[in-house]
Amino acid sequence: MRFYSTNNSQVTVSAEQALFHSMPADKGLYMPTPLPYLGVTFFQNIASESLADIGFALSQALFGDEIGKADLEDITHNAFSFDTPVVELEPGKLSVLELFHGPSLAFKDVGARYMAALMSYYSKRKDKEVNILVATSGDTGGAVAMGFHNVPGVRVSILYPSGRVSDLQEKQLTTLGGNVQAFEVDGSFDDCQAIVKQAFMDDELNANLSLSSANSINIFRLIPQGFYYVSAYGQVKKYNRPIVFSTPSGNFGNLSAGVMVQQMGLPVDHFVAATNLNYVVPSYIKTGIYSPQSSVATISNAMDVGSPSNFIRLAHLYGDNYDRFKNNISGYFYDDEETRAGMKHFFNMYNYVSCPHTAIGMMGLEAYIRDTKRDVVGIALATAHPSKFKSLVEEVLERPVDVPERLAVLADLSKRSIRIPAQYEVFKESFLHTVL
Ligand SMILES: N[C@@H](CCOP(=O)(O)O)C(=O)O
């Protein structure tokens, strides 16, 4: 498998180059070519395995010519020591796919840990330290910090918007130390993402350092996110009815990963893109006009993305055809008041405690089923453990929320961050000071 740039399909690079360079110099994003059609039978055969075994089977189908079987087995089994259960709220109709059983209690563990294992594999033959730059609106940072903590030959710098992540999310980014450092940016997630992207285009930085990204701009953060759609399919295929996934969305990597496995042959009937007030994609689906905006701060902060990086990937997956796009994805969005009401509704109705992002996915799914009156197996992706948003969830549901030990221990640790304005030159100077 090779990887082309969304800005120039003629130039392709190897998996290793796409992994370490993250972004092509022409400012596009890498896409796999060819995206193999593996067929429904392939997915039927692997879907009931563990997440690690699904990951292994798919990795072998995709990169088996580049990485040997035993190494791929190590990579996937090291990455996925947890599973992604489907919890049925209304059997055969409405379920949640719980993606928060990994170390950082968010779905990003899947991509971050796979990438970390892959980088460790390739890094053995590299002589230069790899500098991972990552922008986060909440969940990516924690998963990347934990996934790459103490990985030899790798240093991680996390940029996050000051005051716009939850307390426990911030602790995950700022307390590990060692090879992980955090930049607290006076700005939005989009400012953090713009700084990271500018760093990848900076000749001076690239001449001196080996820079890579662990955001979903890196195709290897995104590919493993397809594995859990397969796992979910394995858990509900017994119903033998059309499957609809509702994906809470911010940077749209999660949804792009789902569409990729669908195009490889996973039998998914339809997707719902569910967002908060950062609704540029639902708005595109409605109007055909794509118009990125400044991000709006909401209680579902991890989805506060006004200019989603992966829109371009989605457009490519549909051959830049608006009708194909809107026939396969429906869009729904919710403000904070509706999100709070949704969290209460799912608790009262099913005794299910959800984080605000998951509630948005569940509301989008309910709305799709109500609007279309289709008889489908609906699965909403549960992206983060509710305890990551402890104070909000407790306030909305008026009940205490249990915090798993691995998160609770962070509460008493002191944060260490480097505070900077949202200015590239200030970041660059400070970053160079820490890494050179
Ligand atoms: N929702 C994200 C924003 C970054 O998205 P990514 O998928 O590109 O890493 C977060 O939680 O940080």
TrEMBL record:
It catalyses: O-phospho-L-homoserine + H2O = L-threonine + phosphate. Keywords: Amino-acid biosynthesis, Lyase, Pyridoxal phosphate, Threonine biosynthesis. Its cofactor is pyridoxal 5'-phosphate. Pfam families: PALP, Thr_synth_N. Its EC number is 4.2.3.1. Pathway: Amino-acid biosynthesis; L-threonine biosynthesis; L-threonine from L-aspartate: step 5/5. The keyword Lyase applies. Residues 84-375 form the Tryptophan synthase beta chain-like PALP domain. GO terms for molecular function: threonine synthase activity. The keyword Lyase applies. It is an enzyme of class 4 (lyase). PROSITE patterns: DEHYDRATASE_SER_THR. Residues 2-80 form the Threonine synthase N-terminal domain. Belongs to the threonine synthase family. PANTHER family: THREONINE SYNTHASE FAMILY MEMBER (PTHR42690), THREONINE SYNTHASE-LIKE 2 (PTHR42690:SF1). This is Threonine synthase. It comes from Spirosoma soli. The gene is thrC.
